[in-house]
Automatic annotation (TrEMBL):
Protein family (similarity comment): Belongs to the guanylate kinase family.
Molecular function as annotated in GO: ATP binding; GMP kinase activity
Name assigned to this protein: guanylate kinase
PANTHER family referenced in this protein's UniProt entry, alphabetically: GUANYLATE KINASE, GUANYLATE KINASE-RELATED
Domain of life: Eukaryota
Keyword ATP-binding: yes
Keywords, sorted A to Z: ATP-binding, Kinase, Nucleotide-binding, Transferase
Organism taxonomic ancestry: Eukaryota, Viridiplantae, Streptophyta, Embryophyta, Tracheophyta
Domain Guanylate kinase-like: 46-227
InterPro entries: GK/Ca_channel_bsu, Guanylate_kin-like_dom, Guanylate_kinase, Guanylate_kinase_CS, P-loop_NTPase
Enzyme class per UniProt: transferase
GO CC terms: cytosol
Amino acid sequence: MDDSRRPPVVPIPHPDSAGRAEVFRALEASLGSSFSSDPIIPDPNPLIIVISGPSGVGKDAVIKRLREVREDLHFVVTATSRPKREGEVDGKDYYFMSKEEFLSMIEKNELLEYAMVYGDYKGVPKQQIRDYMEKGYDVVLRVDIQGAAYLRKILRDNAVFVFLVAESEEALVKRLIGRKTETVEALLMRVASAKEELKHVKDFDYVVVNKEGELEGSVKLMESIIDAEKAKVQQRRAVV
Ligand SMILES: Nc1ncnc2c1ncn2[C@@H]1O[C@H](COP(=O)(O)OP(=O)(O)OP(=O)(O)O)[C@@H](O)[C@H]1O
């Protein structure tokens, strides 16, 4: 006879006629052990979430909004040697630094990933990721497609890779024009590479279509992805 069918050694009062505490104690006494208040499942591991996608698709816009609605995420501030755009804040939007400073970080192996993007360096500082993951934060990285491909190689399935796309090429190009931050030459270069970049979607875990005027929907989907990842039985284990 298995344990669950063995008659209780002490009478267990029915919950209709006894208080919850009394029934609880009687159940413990019958089983001969106390019920643990420890979590049945340990806290999920902190995640590394890599967000990528063609230029102008809305990565910054989605991340900015995600930041507002979710406090338990840390958005890794990328280091860059590109000049600051109007309104950008050092240490918040990017760590702006000279090419020399950037090269010194490369030499000291302080970057998880880096690349030359349209003539300027951009890279992901390792220490920042370690610090926040140690504190239990999920960490979000924003990288270009080549950066994502490289991170996939080194982090494999230990990070979550999300590809952001627009609903069509037309919408993507219009969005880039509307941003008014590019020279005509840069615009042409970004539009040309966007077509090529779309082929990389297959290397990602999730794709989020950031439709015109539907930024909130994209942010909600991002949140759902994070929540689902947190509920996975086989947790990812990122180490940088
Ligand atoms: N769902 C959306 N609907 C309408 N406009 C959007 C949407 N998402 C982003 N935008 C706008 O599109 C422009 C480009 O977005 P954003 O700068 O976030 O793109 P990005 O992917 O970060 O670009 P880059 O890689 O060049 O930095 C911005 O002006 C932004 O406000």
